[in-house]
Amino acid sequence: MKILVVGGGGREHALCRSIAKSPKCEKLYCAPGNAGIAEDAECVNIGGEDVEGLVAFTVEKWIDLVVVGPEVPLVLGLADRLEEKGVKVFGPSADAALLEGSKAFMKDLFARYNVPTAAYERFSDFDAAVAYVKNQGVPIVVKASGLAAGKGVILCQTKEEAIAALDQIINQRVFGKAGDEVVVEELLVGEEVSFFALVDGDTALPLVSAQDHKAAYDGDKGPNTGGMGAYSPAPVVTPAVADQIMKEIIQPTIDGMAAEGRPYKGVLFAGLMITEDGPKTLEFNVRFGDPECQVLMARLKSDLVEALDATAEGRLKDITLQWRDEAAMVVVMAAEGYPGSYQEGSEIRNLMATGDVEGVTVFHAGTKAVNGKVLASGGRVLGVTSLGQDVARAQSRAYEAVDKIDWPEGFCRRDIGWRAIDR
Ligand code: AMP
Ligand code: GLY
Q1: How many CB atoms sit inside 10 A of residue 45's CB?
Q2: Ligand 1 centre and the CA of 282: distance in Å?
Q3: What is the C-alpha separation between 24 and 28, in angstroms, rounded?
């Protein structure tokens, strides 16, 4: 098969690595890719948001399967446009991608199908939202409904903070159109996990559990990021909890989407809080998590192309997945300053030395190759990924590899996996 992966981050590097290994893959392209992906795929300079450019390339090269990494092209309708041309796609239609594209849509869907989630109300009027906050009390969570690159969620400990957040979103429009509507919801307490299932319209096949660290600094302190590291398995997701998640959250969502004429196809990523009253849904994403994908791919033994193709063709009920028993971890190395402003162009040296550490793979997230040098070209730059007998051993290998990389302009957290290791 000829396969095109859309995207250019650590998630896409992990996907490309697994796809390239498959005997079913004859030729792999990635748009736009990065310096690491170029080792596994032919990178083509088309941005993930250039829907017309991606469609034209796919047709020109007779691509058999397109695997879409990030959410934005999906929300823009890339899967629909490709399917119109008869191309198989791993990723949902724009109608189904609304699960991530609109928190207001998602929350209303949960209400219609009794999917456990935080109590909420949606608003576009500032005064009405303020009245709701005053009535509910704090702590409370304020969210821009649309896509805000992971920044549109504000956890508020005081009424003043909540009112300021509403003012920023509704009156000051800091998230633009994404703030046309806000969702105000109950703050859930518990342990957060990332749960993934492949979905082909009606059948859902769960993947192994994972947990990520969203905060920028050690001790889960500092501003939220896209994710500073992740590990799998997440011990809090016992087999009984996984069954409950499938039965109470994933299956009702898929059935509801199908019943409403928006059948879901691709990977469904549920961000969950495991509360005292069981798992509750924080959000859905219509893509693999980044960096969770890196640890899932490290543990996957089965042929990824077969699984993606079966998802795209609606044959998931015939598929089972094999996983390594070992634990996996990814430690993200980011540019100093991330998630705020940071410099690009610093050189990363000694990457080859990480090959000496058993069980370690370095996925590139934001790099470019210039004159034989690897330069940082993003906020999250590398994902040092390891396997080990358990999370603690995966952790020591990951940091051994991190310490070999010579990149003074970068930083990483030193405590990825602490929850699992403390248990
Ligand atoms: P979201 O983009 O909706 O996943 O929110 C980003 C992060 O904010 C989540 O990963 C949680 O850590 C946190 N969060 C969102 N909603 C809630 C909630 N209702 N209660 C507690 N934490 C939340
Ligand atoms: N790591 C969380 C996400 O991809 O949204």
Answers
A1: 9
A2: 6
A3: 11
Specify the CATH architecture of the domain 327-422: Alpha-Beta Complex (3.90)
CA–CA distance, 75 with 95 (Å, rounded to integer): 8
Q: Can you name the residues that pair with 192 across neighbouring β-strands?
A: 273
The rounded Å distance from CA 227 to ligand 2 centre is 6
Which of 24, 36, 46 has its CA nearest to residue 12?
Answer: 36
pTM exceeds 0.85 for this model: yes
> Hey, which of 211, 285, 286, 330 would you mutate to test ligand 2's pocket, going by the most ligand atoms within 8 Å of its Cβ?
285
Per-residue pLDDT of the chain (423 residues; tens, 9 = 90+): 999 999 999 999 999 999 999 999 999 999 999 999 999 999 999 999 999 999 999 999 999 999 999 999 999 999 999 999 999 999 999 999 999 988 889 989 999 999 999 999 999 999 999 999 999 999 999 999 888 876 788 999 999 999 999 999 999 999 988 888 999 999 999 999 999 999 999 999 999 999 999 999 999 999 889 999 999 999 999 999 999 999 999 999 999 999 999 999 999 999 999 999 999 999 999 999 999 999 999 999 999 999 999 999 999 999 999 999 999 999 999 999 999 999 999 999 999 999 999 999 999 999 999 999 999 999 999 999 999 999 999 999 999 999 999 999 999 999 999 999 998
CB 366 within 8 A of CB 34: yes
CATH number for 191-318 (one of 3.40.630.30, 3.30.470.20, 2.60.40.10, 3.40.50.150): it is: 3.30.470.20
